[in-house]
Amino acid sequence: MPPQLSTGALLRIMKDEKVPEPIVQILQSKKINCNSDKERYRLLISDGKYQISHAMLTGVSGVENFSIIKMKQYHLSELSSSQKINKILLIIGMEVLCSMDEKIGNPEQLTDQVIASHSSSEAKPVTNTVQSVPEQPRDLNQSLNQSLSESRVISQISALTPYHNKWVIKARVSNKSQMRTWSNSRGEGKLFSVDLMDESGEIRCTAFRDLADKYFNYLQVDKVYYFSKCQLKPANKQFNTLKNDYEMTIGNETVIEECLNDDGLVPQVKYSFVPISSVAELAVGALIDVIGVCKEVSDIQNFTSRTTNREMTKRDVILVDQSKTSITLTLWGSQAESFDGVNNPVVLVRGAKVGEFGGGKTLSTVMSSQMKINPDIQECHKIKGWFDLEGKESDVKNLSERTGSGSFQSQWLYLKEVQDKGLGNSERGDYFQTLATVLLMRSENAIYKACPTPDCNKKVVDLENGMYRCEKCNREYPNFKYRLLVSMNIGDFSGNQWVSVFSGEAEKILGKTSQEVGLAMEDNSEAGTAIFQNANFKQFIFKCRAKVETYNDEQRLKIVVVNVENVDYEKHSGQLCKEIAELTGISA
Amino acid sequence: MTIMSSGKQYSIVNGAQLPSFMGKNVSVIGVVAKYASAGSLSLTINTTDNIALTVNLNKPLDKDLNGEYIEVRGVCENAREGKIIKAEEYFSFNNTSFDAKSHNTLCKFVNSIPNGYSAKKN
Fold first, then answer.
1. Which of these, B107, B36, B41, B49, lies nearest to B83 by C-alpha position?
2. Chain A residue numbers touching B69 (CB-CB < 8 A)
3. Considering A391, A464, A529, B99, which has the largest number of Cβ atoms within 10 A of its Cβ?
4. Considering only CB atoms, which chain B residues are within 8 Å of A588?
5. What is the CATH number of the domain that holds A58?
6. Nearest CA-CA distance, residue A480 and chain B, Å
7. How wide is the angle at C-alpha A581 spanned by C-alphas A578 and A586, nearest 5°?
8. Are both A347 and A470 inside the same structural domain?
9. Does residue A27 form part of some domain?
10. pLDDT digit string, tens, across residues A228-262
11. How many A-B residue pairs are in contact by the CB < 8 A criterion?
12. What's the pTM?
């Protein structure tokens, strides 16, 4: 016994009525050639009484003729061709109930006239039946809140496609970008975008130029809005990481209205917060949600980007959380300018990017990041409570530390392990620290004459006329300063390694300033050499950066000492105890 | 693990481990707990795991000791559950600051991890 067809359903659908999950029979299906990778079929379907040929099926790999299906999700779409408006029934979701081998009943073709005659019979009597105009879509400009209360059907974000344009979605703004400007050969302008979400999914919505101005202040993060008549197009995955094949553009005919009674049906933005201590293990470039108390805040820094030559503004904020770990979060542009770190606000960032700088991990906001200050959510109150009670006073590890002695961010290795593990093959180099003894500091070619400008350490060219030229500053100076670049061999029980040391760190090893060393070498090279020899067999903790570099097609591991420290034996023995405990399984 | 001194071997132990080293040569580090004046033949130390030990010396103290860390080498005596050491020698570190925690950890490690470098078979 085949399921009962929803007789008359097609007529009601074509009249814009909503019929829940109507059951129809497919009389004929034909595959349509299209560029899209999804298959599409044109269908002739019947509800037993009427049949229509303007039906399309997508997302399904074909159905047999005479199958009886339940239309789980469908839309009525208008295609305006040259003269008249064609209504197309687009079936997005369906279920095949059973297959048949013949047509049920004798359906009649559902024409515009039939539809018109039925609507006219219900609505005001229309005398002119020949020139019947298809019913206009409801005047959306009227009020979506109002019209929706008249049971207008709300579409789901995941169901939006470019193939139908008559929809309204009810969505929460989960993210709003800054206003951005662009300028290229085709012109310039500005834009901003919002990320919308409902229970079915998410989509990005972008507004350009005047419309960007119009809606920028109107659309606010976390509020719910009705959206209608946006243009849909395939998403550009280069800029859009949302899980949707499409994105929308706000056009002139777009209607957006705030949903006045947020009934909570549209889900709240969900965060998956990562404890700051776990950021240490994350890969550079990962996007994470993070919440922390602003412990310190730096002043605004203005600088010019080297790559794009653009003026940039940034501000560093130190965040701390219950994992007793702190990290530097870099804010950019207007976010940096407007940030107020007074009274240790709680800072929430959705989609912060993990970075690495000088061996420490950092966070930074990117275009898609969303920042909130003191958000009214449970996590915020928890962390604030923790901070006020205990966090303010407790010691925290700084994940972003570049030079300090914290042992957690760069791995402890013995020199042989550096070789065995093949360090230095990552693009940005690998950092490690080791306790080693200076075996030899090479005094030859250890000093050079550098530009006397404080921040410029470029080697100067001796013009042999008492002047020294710096290529970087493009200036000539009557003087120069000495700087050190020492090649040094360090060793531990496992092996030894040549490393390079620059002025700052070499001075710590030698116990003399670069200038003192330079002058000593100039006066009396024996006395100068003695300074270097004095350093032999001293023990330090070296923090190093290893990077494989290619010279003349030959790969060489280059290791630069980024920090030298005197050995804190108590701390180091603690580190060794920890390692032994891990290796043996005996708790210390 | 043991250390060699004047031809003898001493096991490095903490207070809690002493009972299993009775009658054996041990090396214990502790802080002098009570003022001991020059000439005394006995003193009390608190080990790195905070156990009080009585140290009986074989020659009188040559200076006053109080609050300093010292290493005592000698035989662990059977009386009072091994809390007496008959010292053969002692060394004062002349220092009130000592990484007691690490030393205590060391005692645990050296007496529980087999010595892979030892020529003798255990």
1. B49
2. none
3. A391
4. 105, 108-109
5. 2.40.50.140
6. 47
7. 150
8. no
9. yes
10. 888 898 888 777 777 888 999 998 888 888 888 77
11. 23
12. 0.46
